[in-house]
Amino acid sequence: MANDKDSRRQxxxxxxxxxxxxxxxxxxxxxDLVFVMRFMGESQHRLQSHFQDFIRAELAAGGVTTETYxxxxxxxxxxxxxxxxxxxxxxxxxxxxxxEEIERLTGxxxxxxxxxxxxxxxxxxxxxxxxxxSQAGTLPKLLSAFENHPDRRLGPKNDGGxxxxxxxx
Length: 169
Known about the structure:
By secondary structure, this protein is mainly alpha-helical.
């Protein structure tokens, strides 16, 4: 009679698990994979500069300047980046191409794009798994710190308000 340890199924080696999930992702490509535009380089800088100038002018019209608020440049830069990313994300999402369209546009009759994507997916999955495994030894300590953090505790909590009511998470 086998003991409990013998009856447990041994996990598959990482490479065969990565092959399986990679194969699943490649099979799902026709419905799930889209290619989107991405603005890079000078385009990002140009749009960010536009929004910095726009925000600076809008704030100045309301009396907010670097003279009245010396740290306002950080606010302007951060918000310009958010607006830039909003614009580029919106445009990118509105211009999506499916893998079949890309194959047709590039004349890829041998599905080399899919093979390249397979290789990249498998390599990145294996890298992610190895990275996690290399850090897994520190996980119990991190989880313990997370669970014991006062803001993360579950259960009754006094909100410190005037009524002193306790709330259940």
